[in-house]
Design a protein that fits this description.
about 110 residues; about 10% helix; Rieske_2Fe-2S_sf; metal-binding; iron; 2Fe-2S
């Protein structure tokens, strides 16, 4: 894997999100705990709502437009037949690293 440094953990509010630009478009970083961050599409699979503006709860995010809930581990919508893209991340020395290979693979698709 080729890891890309994309943000400081402290730049993402706990139970909140920030958006970063990548080759596949804007990706939302969701901080669900002190040392737990997920990366996923910022666009809701339902109506394209900005998920980074949604409510982060547990390991899920609720879209601010129509209340669709997405599991940040899998991208699967809860109770719906839809999903959003998710991306592998890890935290090292207070920095969020995104798997560059996963981003490159999806930008080629």
């Amino acid at each position: 894997m080729s890891w890309i440094d994309i943000a400081a953990v402290d730049d993402i509010p706990e139970r909140g999100a920030r958006v970063v630009k990548t080759p596949v478009g804007c990706i939302a970083l969701f901080r669900t705990g002190a040392e737990e961050v997920f990366a996923a599409s910022n666009s809701c699979a339902h109506k394209g709502g900005p998920l980074a503006d949604g409510i982060v709860h547990g390991q899920k995010v609720t879209c601010p437009l129509h209340n669709w809930v997405f599991d940040l581990n899998t991208g699967q919508a809860v109770g719906e037949d839809a999903r959003i893209a998710t991306y592998p991340v890890r935290i090292e020395a207070g920095r969020v690293l995104l798997d560059g290979m996963a981003v490159d693979d999806r930008s080629a698709a």
